[in-house]
Design a protein that fits this description.
heterodimer, A: mainly alpha, elongated
Amino acid sequence: MISSTLSVSLAVLRRVMIQTIKNPAIIIPSLAFPLVFLVAFAGGLSIVADVPGFSFKGGYTAFQFVFVFTQTAAFGGIFTGYRIAEDYESGFARRLLIAAPHSAGILLGFVLAGLARFFLTGLILWGIALVAGMNVLGSPLEILAMWLLAANVSIASTLWVAGLAFRFQSVDIGSFMQMPVFILLFLAPVYVPLALLTGWLKLAATYNPVTAILAANRGFISGEESKALLAFGLAVGLAALMALWAVRQFHRAHRSVA
Amino acid sequence: MSSTSQLALIARRSVSRTFRQPVLVVPVIAFPLILLAVNAAGLSSVTELPGFPTKSYINFAIVVCFVQGALFAAISAGTELASDIQTGFTDRLALTPAKRWVVLAGATAGGASIAVFGSVIYLVVGLIFGVEIDTGVVGALVLLALAIYTAIAFAGIGAWLAVATGSPQAVQGMFPLLFVLLFLSTMSLPLDFIQKEWFATIVEWNPLTYLIDGMRGLVIGGWDASTLLPAIAVATGIMVITFTGASRSLRKRVQRT
């Protein structure tokens, strides 16, 4: 059963990746989006580092890179969700649900596809940031931890969007797929550290799990101490919660076909 | 039937179809306001930098909502038109005497109307949360008119994308590309606060900069033709280029069909 599930997953992964690579309209935005954000935040907002009280060992480019890297992980999932929704609109998803011997493999395949997209864009992002002279003060192990933490974000995001795609089965909800992820990301300390935030945003950022993930990754990249265990716990918990949502919507969609 | 009547019929269908789908309307209203709230709080400390043009960051940032709403309108309009192309509705329309511009303008009316609706809400919410418009009531009305004009122009982008690709997913996938243009503009900081020269050059070449600065001038600068006229010119240019491109693409698509 496991090998059958895995073969379904790999087939879904292969299909999504081939479609992604073959269709520039799909691959370009997922590559361009994080790159432009990196340029816009690290380049355009560099004066923010002059705000009284701002201090980050790695410099403003590394500070912003962590946010953009996390965002890349989240958007790897969102773009995969578009794929699922379009598969429903074309009728392919229904045929897949009927044909796959172990349908759980379908969901796993989409999660793997989201991860593959994230690794692809993440690698390019790292390459460009390093060429641009970003300071990386963390050890190789800390950088690996940074990737793992972001991979959890990618999994959570894919499962969230997959759940939406199974539920609504239409690409019309594209904005609705992006919006909650955007909100969660931007309700974290994006431009300045948590200590410099004030008012309602500070309150929201304090309880936002993304804040802990960003703080841990900023600690990893600058080689400074961070609450890594808390960040991993929150990221895994978020992915588990999203898995429950996605599986529930998947079964609902499966029942409607059967 | 006159072109006006045809336009009214197609536009009515587009508007009612769009407003019947909360997933198309809610993000246009909510997302710009949320980003405004987040940026106004997250970047409020930059007003402490010497020479920043206002002491209230929300005054500086409010106009971004209008441009962002117009970008959403572009995608909503494009997605709806692409769906019509995919289902064959546009092909059936091509068999009628309706002119191409009527089909395009009518089909994008839904997206544009959301932006109009959104612009009014952004302005009202902004005023409730303390936005002060230096040019007064007349300035607020001009701001609204410019925002609506921009939204119609941007609907042309959606129309062109829809006709060129014929795929709602491809149109949706272009949203991030359009959206990032906002971040390569004077959205967050004035041009003279951008330290990196290469980034300042990108910002100067970005047409959205002129739209944002034109609208922003009405809020924090007072009446200034040097910012307002370029904004009108940019919106007009986008409208002419995109609707012309969409019309030509539609002709080719119909010929292929």
